[in-house]
Amino acid sequence: MRAEIPHLTPAQWQSDIRLLADAVPKTHKNAFHHTSKAEFGREVARLLKLAEHGSDPAIVVGIQRLVASLGDGHSGLSTMGLFRSYPLELMYLDGEIRVIRAGAGFEKAIGARVLAIDGTPIAEAQRRVLPLISQAENQWWIRDQQPRKLVVAENLFATGIAHDVDGANFTLQRDGGRPIDLVIPSVPAGTSIDWREITPLPLSRTHTDQSFWFTDLPGTKAVYVNFRNYSDLAENARALFDHVDAVGAKALVFDLRFNGGGNFTLPRRFIIPEIRRRATLMAPGHLYVLVGRHTFSAAMTNAIDFKRDLKATLVGEPIGARPNGYQENGMITLPQSNLRVSVSTLYYQFWPTNIAALKPDVSRPPNWGAVRSGRDSALTYAIAQLRQNGRR
To answer: pTM, whole model, 2 decimals?
Structure first.
């Protein structure tokens, strides 16, 4: 799906901004839980001023910033199909921003550290996109979101990192090499990109076009389940447990590290009861759940379900969503621009204490050494434990 940045008069933009400022506190469950009403008002005034003379992309990014100031990850501007992007996938690893895949023609970028974008040092670029990210979740959410914001052309232009939206010069450095400059053009939303990857790929980064898939783990009686989203979950869960019974699986490894959420009630209906019905899967050490910075919303809730109700062992890094916080999506459509804004309408408490992040039982965060060699530290740990404890 592709949309265009709206082209409006200053008066039209200001009309939308005022409507949004009025609708947010009426729609959000608690609009000022993170930012104060006065701070929000100052941000609105700044955006109204920008609308007098700013470019359309800068104003849209300003609206993104305004909604992000609410703090929770469910409140945000819907940018699907709207922004241009660079054919790079970046990841925060070991305190650095690395290129972990790139479009065809830019293979030189793969594996490199990003040093600067259009001359802006990467640390400064990270600082400039920070206000575009919800701050009331936790630091692992920011680690997930910052690299994503840094490949959006309009974000880089509006924050003064890049000179325009059509292309930017990325200064990169591969291990043991000298810095190089790559001028990379941005592509419109919806463009099909011929991705080139770091090879070999770990199991978890294969079949990325599938919402839910599973496979037997060689040398074990365990099934690995890559659970990326909630589409067709009833059907997918039925296929999984038919397979579990057919092969006599004794253990499961659920991977929620790439799951950004959905309907948390579905696994409670179609997965958790099925595990409970199988005594072998309920035995201690027979259920592992891999979690991380992109485990968000419903996926965070279901990770807690697995841990609390099924005594699963969580492996990976802290989850990117705050366990107790604002969720669900109340939509506001801005009439002049047709931009859509989501704000949280409910507060959930999924954990007995107010912690910033649910931490794994076993810490195996991603690191550059593992990514570079195609290893998956979290999955490797789970497999080793299954083999060591005889669940073959």
So the answer is: 0.96
